[in-house]
Design a protein that fits this description.
The chain is mainly α. The protein has one domain (20-68). The chain has three helices and no strands. The longest helix is centred in the middle third of the chain and has 27 residues, at 13-39.
Length: 68
């Protein structure tokens, strides 16, 4: 996409759509991943219900932040 813009061409809209989807997926999963990485330092915090709640929280936050 950057190369196309540097050449004065229009970027591929399919690639832009895929990039947007990947960005959304990254936003959805970042909260649970950070929680799981930190949970190793605090015994007893790794519970399926907590991780599930954080996944839903991450989804909701991403949906709110990226509302179109």
């Amino acid at each position: 996409m950057v190369a196309a813009l540097k050449q004065g061409k229009e970027p591929d809209p399919v690639a832009a759509s895929r990039a947007k989807t990947r960005s959304k997926h990254n936003t959805f999963i970042v909260i649970p991943v950070v929680f799981l990485m930190l949970s190793q330092h605090f015994p007893g915090t790794y519970h399926w219900a907590t991780v599930s709640a954080l996944v839903l929280l991450g989804w909701g936050a991403a949906k709110w932040i990226r509302r179109d």
